[in-house]
Every structure is written in structure tokens, then in C-alpha cells.
Design brief:
The structure is a homodimer. Chain A is an alpha/beta fold. Helix content of chain A is about 45%, strand content about 15%. The interface between A and B is large, with 55 and 54 residues. The first copy, chain A, binds a DNA duplex through helix 2 and helix 4.
Amino acid sequence: MPVTLVEVAARAGVSPATVSRVLNGNYPVAESTRQRVEKAVRELDYVVNAHARALLHATSGIVGVVLNDASDPFFAGIARGIQGAAAETSRLSVICNSEGDAEQEFAFLDLLRGHRADAVILVGAAPEDEEYRAAATTRAKGMLTTGTRMVLCGRPSPGEDAPGHVVEIDNEGGSAAITRHLVELGHRRIAYVTGPDGRTTTTARLAGFRRALADFGVEADENLVVHGDFSRQAGREAVERLLAAGRDFTAVLAANDLVAAGAVSALRAAGRSVPDDVSVAGYDNLPTAVDVWPNLTTVHVPLEEIGRKAIELAFGPADPQTVVTIPTAVVVRDSTAAPAAG
Amino acid sequence: MPVTLVEVAARAGVSPATVSRVLNGNYPVAESTRQRVEKAVRELDYVVNAHARALLHATSGIVGVVLNDASDPFFAGIARGIQGAAAETSRLSVICNSEGDAEQEFAFLDLLRGHRADAVILVGAAPEDEEYRAAATTRAKGMLTTGTRMVLCGRPSPGEDAPGHVVEIDNEGGSAAITRHLVELGHRRIAYVTGPDGRTTTTARLAGFRRALADFGVEADENLVVHGDFSRQAGREAVERLLAAGRDFTAVLAANDLVAAGAVSALRAAGRSVPDDVSVAGYDNLPTAVDVWPNLTTVHVPLEEIGRKAIELAFGPADPQTVVTIPTAVVVRDSTAAPAAG
DNA sequence: CTGTTAGCGCCTTCAA
DNA sequence: TTGAAGGCGCTAACAG
């Protein structure tokens, strides 16, 4: 059995209330008393029971982070920012991997609600179907009754009436910008490898790509749009399929850097040089972008900053339903160049 | 204010005790009563207060994971395994980034202890000084009094008398094996870029390197050992320093894959081809090992499996102080080859 | 400045 | 099968 406050009180020869006061430092306590209590605490190796405390305060010092997969560098980056900012207000972050499964996501939400999390941050793209949207809105409302603040991070709000702050990434803008970069280099036949179907991020990035092409009056060839997910494997397979089908393209724009890395390796395996034969661009500016050779041209997304922003919103003023859009920026490296003449 | 069990009871027209019984399903309850209670729970969107429950049970369903940095792929891999295995027993994982700082690590330990974590898993290399060892042993004993199980993961036990299970990685063996691979290819002048000084993992990997050289009767040149940390940056700088000093070497063995990736890029920048001019090998077999070109020869460490093992030990039979050593295996890819003749 | 008292929300006897 | 009562460990009034 762990040591309790009462035992500390007994050893120090004071009342439990006094021990509590010493521990919290909210009320005046005589110096000599304080010393005796602190001594007892040390001798007994006492640690306050966070649950007993949470029971009184209806707060827990816990921040829930629900994401697809913490080992994915995109999520890891954001989680890192959240963790850092949360720790600064001495709150614990609880990271929950939902594996992209809505059921699991909701299960974690309930768990975190049960733990009276101070805030829950949902990170990453969301499914786009109406059913999910309705369920998410209901959940969001439920969180309020438990006093748990909710922040969406990297996904839009499920609806006007859903409470909670939002940190959005300018996916469409970033995607348009990097497409523009390719077009300005002279590329016209650009292949696009998407993220997983039916997710907000996938849709926004693809939309940016199409918008930029349209702006330049470049006709989009739907045969050059290949569906994938956010993995290296998807990038490899997508390029292999394109090549096998004999498609003609001078550049590949990938939904993220992992996909781009896969694309590069498939191109190399097929004997195509990057960027001399084919340019490749990614998205997110993950650490791995500079491991790939040639180093990837990509869109920088300030992941840690996004995480910190989420915490800021979570514990900022309660009332407004803030939406912050994080800007992105094209980073030109070595994987893109003008297409070969001809 | 969140809904409480009492309110549910009132709405269902039963006593709080009955609601509790329905919720936990431990005692017989009439079917009709159960239905009414479940209806009330749904209508009120009730979620049990995990703290109140934890107060009774002296358990929380929380597993603490303390590591350097969750965005580092090595830690991310292990954390993923822990998370998965913990979730299977419906426990929440709390991931805490200590940034390699012993103070912070201990602070998290206290926090987790306060939350009555069911188990705490310390992941990654530990400092090697005596002071840390003593402090860690004391902490480990303290955890016991709170009923928190402790597992060390990727680090040795701080001492014979320290309680807790251990999942060790065979760092020395793996390092010796990959060194052997290089020597057998014909390399004699092998540079070694270490991890951060004074950490168990760094020491073990370096020891394996030296042992393998000694086994082959190859004389180790201390000028070829460069100290770094586990980052790309360190790999780059180490190779630059080696090159600047005009050292003669035909292979670089890196403390991990990130360091190896950095080494490769520095060599390329200096116009040395990998593996034609210089072979490079890494450690850990991180996902990024196949983004690097040429793909890295490395030592596979089954990160997720290690994480799962840690949970298994944490919640397995209480008594024995188990030590499990996870074997490693050399993975030969494209970054190593026989040295150029001459 | 310090002790006493009354719960926070839930579960677990003990009775009925 | 159900209800009433006590207490888990702590803190916030309220006295003193």
C-alpha cells in the first residue's frame, strides 16, 4: 500500500490539512512546521495521489493526443510540439494510436473523457463521410459536458455547430504552390500520387494540385493521378504502375515525403534519373527528406509549431471557437529541375 | 459539471449501487433493471470517472513510457509496440519525453507514480555514472511501494539490488556482427562514429566493434573513432572531421542509421562514392535505412517486438526479476562492399 | 497559523 | 436481486 497523506501527518505530528497546505503552498504555514512535514515526506517517500486530487478539482493535468500512428514522422513531429508545450504547464500528454480507425478513435475519446482529460487533441486527417462527421460532432459536444476542451489539428471542423478549436494546415495552398514550382520549371505532364482516399488531407492536397494546373491552363490528365496512401510502399507501387502503363510524365508530385521517397526509389530502379529524367516533389518536409538522394524538394509544414499552437488554443480563452491556419512554404532542393529538352 | 452515477441512478429510478453493478457487470442484476439503467446512461451520455474508480482500486489503467524523444524513430518504434500491447489490455499509454535529461526523467517518474501508473517503462540508453545508478535504484524501489511495476527497455539494470524487469538489446553482439561483416569484406581501416558519450548503448556498441576487430587481430586505430550522438548531423560532421584530418579509412560504421545517413551525405558531398570508395553501415534498421541511397547495410533491431515484450514482462508474473535479451541480425544491403583494390 | 469536518464519485460490504 | 452505509486519499471551508 502506498503511503498516504495521513501517515505523513502522523509522522510529522500535524494534521492532514497542514500536510496538504505544505504540499500545495497555498496557505501560510510556520517554517518549523513546514520543515517537519517536508522531512516526513522525504523519509516516507510520499507522492500525492493524483486521482484523489483530480476527484476534488474535476481536472487531471492530462492532455490526450489521438493520432493515427505516433511512429509516423508527421504525427511524431506534431506530438512532439504538443508534448513540449504541455510539459511546460506540467501536464502529462497521453498519446493514443487510433490506426486511422474511427471506432478506436472514439473509444480513446471515451477513455480520455473518463480520465477527465483537460484537453483532447485530435491530430491528422479525418474521414470525409457524413456519418463520421455527425458522430464526431456529437462526441465534441459530449466532451464539453466533461469539461474537456477539444482541439482539431490538421483537419477541418466536422461542422459549424461542432465546438472546439481548429489548427488547420494550408494543404491546398501548399500543394498549389509546389505545383506552381513544377509548372514554372516547365513541367506540363505531372503525375500525382494521392494519400488515402476519403480523407480531408488527401482531398485538399489534390485540390491544390488541380487548382494550380488550372490556373496555368495546363490540362490535367486523370491517367496521371494514382491513388495511394502516405507510405513509401505506395510511392513505389504508384510509379511502377505508371511506368508499366507506359504513361508519359516528366514530374511526380507526391502526397507526402514518404511517398516521394518511394517514388524516387522506383524511378531509380527503373533506370530513370532524378531529376534529370523525372522531377519528384514531396510534402511535409519530414526529416527523411534530406536522407533521400537527391534531397527532396517539398513543402515545409512546421509540425512542432502546430502542436504548440494546439496547446495554446486548448488552454487559451475559453469562449471563441478559433480557427488558425498554419501557412506552408515550398522548399526547393535537388529533386526537381527543368524537364529534359524535347 | 459532468454527469455522475447518482444522476444516472435517479433517472433510472434505482440506487447508485445498482448502476454500479450494471456498469461493472460483476453482480447479478435483473434484465429489466439493466435495460433501464443502460438507457439512462445513454441518454445522459455518462462516462465513469476514472479517478474515483482508481481511488478505490489503487490502479489506473495507465502505462507510463519514459523516453528521450518520441519523434526519434528508434523510440517511436518501441513506443509503438508498447502502445499496441497496452491497448490490447485496454490500458492507456502515457508517453513522456525526457530529452535525455535525468532530472526530467525522475520528474516524470514521480508524476506517473502520483497517477498510480500500473507500470512504467524506461526506454533507451541510461547514463553510466554512479550517481545516476544510485538514484535510479532508489527510484526503482520507490515505485514498488506505489504498486507500480517497472521495466527497463534497451538499458541494463542499474544494479543487482534494483527491482524491475529488463528487456535488453544485444548491442555488443550486433555491433560485433556487423564489424565482422566489414572485416570479412576485406576492410581493415574502419572508422567508427559513436553515440552520445557516457551512455550504456554507446559503450556497448563501441565495445562490440572493438571486440570484433580484436577477434580478427585487426589493430584498432583510435584516430578513427569519432564521438557524436545519434543524429544525422553528428554523422555528417564526424565524416567531415575525418576527411579534414586526412584520415585513411575504407569503411564507416555508425552508431545508428541516422548517423550513417549523415555519413553518406558527407561522403557524397566530398565526392566519395558509397560503397565504391567507402562502405557505410548503420544500426537499428530504422525505416529511413531504405530511403538512403545506397540502401543501408545495418543491424536489425526488432523495435516493436521489444515494446511488446516490455508490456509482457510488466504484467506477467510478479515475482521473478526477469532479464530478456533481444537478439539482433545483420541486414546486408547496398552501402557496403569490398574495398577498392590497392 | 493549525485542527476539524465534510464531502469529491465510486464500489463493496452488509442487510433486507 | 436491490438498497443503505462507509470509506478510498485528498482539500476547502470553518473554527479556533
